[in-house]
Amino acid sequence: MASFVTEVLASSGKLEKEDLSGKISKMSRKVEETKEELYEMINKRYADFLPSLQSSEQLMIQVDEVSKEMEALKNCIKNEVQQNIQGAVTEYAKLKQQLEKNTVIIEVLGHLKEYKNAMEEFDKALPNKDYVEAANMLERARTSVDSLKVWKLSQVPLLGALSSELTVQRENLIYHLGEEWKRLIIWKLPPSNGPQSFLSVALNLSHACVEGPEAKPSALLCCVLQALAIQGELQNKIKLFSQALVKSMLKPLVVHPSLWVNVVEQQDEGIVLAFESLQESSKERSTPSQVYSKLLMVLKTLHAHLLVLDVSIGDKRLSTILGELIWEEMSGCIIHECLVHSIPNNSSELEKYTTVIKQTEEFEKALKDMDFLQRDSTDLLKYARDINCHFASKKCKDVIVAARKLMTSKMHNTVKITPDYKLRLPKLPAPGPEVKVKPEATREELTMENAKQLSALSLCLPACRISESVQQLMELALHTLCEAVGSSAYCALHLFITVRNVFQLFYDVVPTYHKENLLKFPHLAAIQHNNCMYLAHHLLTLGHHFKAHLPQPYGRGLATFVDMVPGFRRLGARCFLAQMNVQRSELLERLSTAHNFCNLDDEDNYVAASKAVRQVIHQLKQLATVWQDVLPVSIYCKAMGNLLNTAITEIIAKILMLEDISSEDGEHLHTLCQNIIEEGPLVFIPLAEEHKNQKYQEEVPLYVKKWGTFKELVIILRANLQEIVDRWADGKGPLALEFSSSEIKNLIRALFQNTERRAVALTKIK
């Protein structure tokens, strides 16, 4: 109810005025309270401010007084104490410098004292041959001089004098050591390099050992070697010694089989190693076992009497150093002068070579036991173990050298090849189980064969002559392939490839090496033609005979020479055709001197024409003799027919070009042509037996294409118009078969005068 009244009064504005007056009275009370609190606070603060200000002013006065006292003290220190400190520092620096100088002087004096003591000890040790002590003292003196050089006293004359004295004394020691070395190790070298001169070579290890049950190196030798090692000269001495050892003793023992080393112990001279000659030795090369035994005798003697000392350079013993110096040259000499020549020539001897490998292993083991060798496997042992590779290389090289020698030999030494000639193929072992052999034909297959068989000579090489060297070349190839059959896979493949290379070498070398002779001499050109055909003929089946016995992949059919056959055939044909072109050119050149066979009524022209014809016939007869029994009959007849055809074709062409032929000219032409007809067949003499050549002389028209034309021309030269017309027979006679109508008309116009009869005859030539 009350709230409702309040809401009503508020809506009328009376209640709002009463609330504002109450709030104003409250604010007035709060303002009064605040003023009182502010007054009390200000009063308290300013009541205590004056005492604080006074105490602060007193403190400031005290601070100023203390500051003045500090400034006065600072000025005092700056003016008096600091001057004393600088003087003290300067004095300290001088004392320090003096101390350092005194220290240097003391150290220098110490090094000088040590140098003096070392040189005094050196002077005592050297006359007594205490070379090790002398060498050590020189090293101490050198160390002292090096220490003096560190102090940068190079300007001091004393240091130069000490260095000079040290150098002089070191050279003096080395000189004495060198003299002792010469007395202990004496070389007697030969004046030349012949095997007899090496007999004067001797190595004398004078008093190198002390006598006793076990020979030990003498103390003097030990001292000399150790002193040389201390002075750094032992390496140079051993190097010079190794060079003389290899050149004058080790190499001659390897190269000359007649030399043997003899070790003699003499009381006055010590141990002497000298050469002696083995008179019973007649071999050109020493065997590996002989070489190894001779070398080991020398090296064991050196090791027992010289290198067994406990002397080393760095961490290497004396024997190790000598071994490093001599091994490369010595092993190379053994390989090139001994092992190379011990490689077997036949594959059957390869199994025996295991003995050489074992001997090489024992040789290297002995060297390792004496510390001459440090490596497990050397080039020498690798070479001996790679015998298959070296055998193949040597065999291939020998085959190539032998083949090239045959190719560059004279070609005119020939042998007769007949159709029944066969290569002497060796009997080969049966192929392995992996090779498939073609089964034999059954009876049904045999009955299905054609009743008519080819002649046994159908695929044979025709009778001819080939170079003896080519026959030997083929035998060399057969022998090499036989070696391949019995060799390892590596050797077999290389030998087969070598045989192919031999034939390829023939293809490349022979035409180049004999080029001039092949063009100059027709006999050699014919032989070269036969050589190429002979090789091509046998290369067809050569690979087939051996392929089943060669390792894979050649056993599967790659072992063939068939791919080389076309090349050899082209080579032979090209060579013979080049010679044919030469002969053809000579024939045409001879005929060119006949003045075109015109005006033969002139004696000079007739003589020239007659001479040209005689020269042509002479050339053909000479070729017939040269090629007789050399070329196969068919090739011979074709070649002679081609050349004769060239000559008569040229003569026919010259005669047909004549515009006027008098009766006397015609008679002369007839005589010349008749001479060719009579002499031409006589050049067909392919066989040495004269009675067998009649057949080929009767078959001249088969080989000379223009022979019928030439015979008809000879008839025309003496015939009258009617005979010519009759032989023409309206284009059906023998004359029409050889000449055209225009050619016959030109001949008639040249042979006969312009008459009515000639005109009638010309009309009948159609």
From TrEMBL:
Residues 177-407 form the Centromere/kinetochore protein zw10 middle domain. It is found in: Chromosome, Centromere, Kinetochore; Cytoplasm, Cytoskeleton, Spindle; Endoplasmic reticulum membrane. Residues 459-589 form the Centromere/kinetochore protein zw10 C-terminal domain. Residues 611-765 form the ZW10 C-terminal helical domain. The keyword Nucleus does not apply. It is a peripheral membrane protein. Residues 27-119 form the Centromere/kinetochore protein zw10 N-terminal domain. Signal peptide: none annotated. GO terms for biological process: cell division; endoplasmic reticulum to Golgi vesicle-mediated transport; mitotic spindle assembly checkpoint signaling; protein transport. One of its GO terms (cellular component) is nucleus. Keywords: Acetylation, Cell cycle, Cell division, Centromere, Chromosome, Coiled coil, Cytoplasm, Cytoskeleton, Endoplasmic reticulum, ER-Golgi transport, Kinetochore, Membrane, Mitosis, Phosphoprotein, Protein transport, Transport. It holds the Pfam family ZW10_C2. Residues 17-98 form a coiled coil. The keyword Coiled coil applies. Belongs to the ZW10 family. Interacts with NBAS and KNTC1/ROD; the interactions are mutually exclusive and indicative for its association in two different vesicle tethering complexes. Component of the RZZ complex composed of KNTC1/ROD, ZW10 and ZWILCH. Component of the NRZ complex composed of NBAS, ZW10 and RINT1/TIP20L; NRZ associates with SNAREs STX18, USE1L, BNIP1/SEC20L and SEC22B (the assembly has been described as syntaxin 18 complex). Interacts directly with RINT1/TIP20L bound to BNIP1/SEC20L. Interacts with C19orf25 and ZWINT. Interacts with ZFYVE1. This is Centromere/kinetochore protein zw10 homolog. It comes from Tetraodon nigroviridis. The lineage of its organism: Eukaryota, Metazoa, Chordata, Craniata, Vertebrata.
